[in-house]
Specification:
Number of helices: 3
CATH architecture of the largest domain: Alpha-Beta Complex
Helix content: 10-25%
CATH superfamily of the largest domain: Ribosomal protein L6
Oligomer: single chain
CATH class of the largest domain: Alpha Beta
Order of helices and strands: HEEEEEEHEEEEEEHE
Mean pLDDT: 92
Strand content: 35-45%
Structural class: alpha+beta
Length: 179
């Protein structure tokens, strides 16, 4: 039994939700998102909230109940406030810059790495070492941030690389003879 699935989703003032069977369309000041929910879960509008309920007590309905509630809640939050992930680059000579729409990373390879963000995702650079990935779809924002981090993940000896803001990297001691 999903406790997350039972919670109602409040709809902000500037957001409109359209329900057509399993198809959910959410429009807000930042944009529009749509998703087709899997069978076994029904979305209903009750006053100024959305409530998800299971069609039956099957195992698949139980499993999808909380997932679908979270997906719809992320859609509502995305079109009203948006999402962002922050990354920081650490290392001597490591830096990022924007060329047109692309992100260019100089992180110790012989050539700079260019990353083109997908549609609906904006990438900004603060200073030379902080990257901000923002957009309305939480899934795409998170995937784009993960792809940027994967270019040079933080290494465990010196801590150089690209990491999420606030991410703690456990460091190793290095050679045992070193003092």
């Amino acid at each position: 039994m999903s406790r997350i699935g039972k919670r109602p989703i409040p709809i902000p003032q500037k957001v409109s939700v359209t329900l057509e069977g399993q198809h959910v369309v959410v429009k807000g000041p930042k944009g529009e998102l749509s998703r087709v929910l899997p069978s076994g879960v029904v979305v209903e509008r009750v006053e100024e909230t959305l409530v998800l309920r299971k069609e039956d007590e099957s195992r698949s309905s139980e499993q999808r109940h909380g997932l679908c509630r979270t997906l719809v809640a992320n859609m509502v939050e995305g079109v009203s406030q948006g999402f962002q992930r922050r990354l920081e680059i650490q290392g001597v000579g490591y830096r990022a810059q924007i060329q047109g729409r692309n992100l260019v990373l100089n992180v110790g390879y012989s050539n700079p790495v260019q990353i083109e963000p997908p549609e609906g995702v904006q990438v900004a650079v603060e200073g030379n070492t902080n990257v901000v990935v923002s957009g309305i779809d939480k899934e795409i924002v998170g995937n784009t941030a993960a792809k940027i981090r994967a270019v040079r993940p933080p290494e465990v000896y010196k801590g150089k690389g690209i990491r999420y803001l606030g991410e703690v990297v456990r460091r190793k001691a290095g050679k045992s003879g070193k003092k």
